[in-house]
Amino acid sequence: MRLPNPLYGLYERHLAAALPASAVPRHIGVILDGNRRWARNLGATTSHGHRRGADKITELLTWSQEVGVDVVTLWMLSTDNLARPAEELDELLRIIENVVTELADTGQWRLQVVGALDLLPAATAQVLREAQERTAQVDGLHVNVAIGYGGRHEIAQAVRSVLREHVGRGTSIEELAQTFDVEHIAEHLYTAGQPDPDLVIRTSGEQRLGGFLLWQSVHSEFYFCEAYWPDFRRVDFLRALRSYAARERRLGR
Fold first, then answer.
1. Residue 12 scores a pLDDT above 90
2. Which residues are paired to 144 by β-bridges?
3. Residue 252 confidence (pLDDT)
4. Is the per-residue pLDDT at 17 higher than 80?
5. Is residue 120 located within the same domain as residue 165?
6. How far apart are CA 173 and CA 166, in angstroms?
7. Span 166-206, pLDDT tens digits
8. Where residue 119 sits, what CATH number does that domain have?
9. 20 to 30 A Cα–Cα from 29, which one of 13, 64, 140, 204?
10. Among candidate residues 89, 64, 74, 79, the one with its CA nearest the CA of residue 32
11. In this predicted model, what pLDDT tens digit does every residue of 112-139 receive, in sequence order?
């Protein structure tokens, strides 16, 4: 539903007022999709689309903080994206470095990098580590920046970590096989200790996870928005929360 611009403020206020505080998700995951298609539709460069998408992130975090969300996970670069043409990837990495640095500079949010930093250029990985370290003591919205992230890769890495840990203790493979449980993996994920995402939002009209938080999203609610990420508005965000609040969550029971 597209409303005339003057009516959006009123509509947003209505959506926000109707949202029960008890139904606000603690953790929201967002797949920031559609930057390239948005740019293509305008006849603009891919890098312009990525820059406009990066500009939208601060708005999303502000909206999330306003309604009382505790954790936001932003999927900014997948492991599959690392296979993009070098020219596009280099520009995208610079944009990511800039936006993560800017988020850290605000001092408003605690940043945590989730992804395989060893797959990224050393300079990019260093920028991300520094941003995480500078915000480690911030008491605010916890923001996971998923960069060089793939769900299968994360699970494989968690299993390797479990094996290394138990081998270091002298545990035999037979002993580990007898006691191995899902919690062993959960404790070694990038998001260990955090609540699993209650709501996962994907923009651009695509209706698939694509490998995002595969383990953690087993009981998540999903919301697929037609808008490309650079066009994602507060009203779209509030609609996603309204849809989430209206659902009966059974959590597999």
1. no
2. 73, 112
3. 63
4. no
5. no
6. 9
7. 888 898 888 888 888 999 999 999 999 999 999 999 999 99
8. 3.40.1180.10
9. 13
10. 74
11. 999 999 999 999 999 999 999 999 999 9
Cα 159 from Cα 182, distance rounded (Å): 10
Positions annotated as catalytic residues are 33, 81
Please state, in angstroms and rounded to a whole number, the distance separating the CA atoms of residues 118 and 122.
Answer: 8
Q: How does DSSP classify residue 69? A: -
Per-residue confidence band for 229, with pLDDT thresholds at 50, 70 and 90: very high
Cα separation, 158 vs 152, in Å, equals: 10
User: Per the domain annotation, does 225 fall within a domain?
Assistant: no
What is residue 171's three-state secondary structure? coil
Amino acid identity of 167? V
As a whole number of angstroms, the distance between CA 9 and CA 231 comes to 16
Note whether 78 and 165 are same-domain residues: no
Q: Is 184:156 a contact under the CB 8 Å cutoff?
A: no
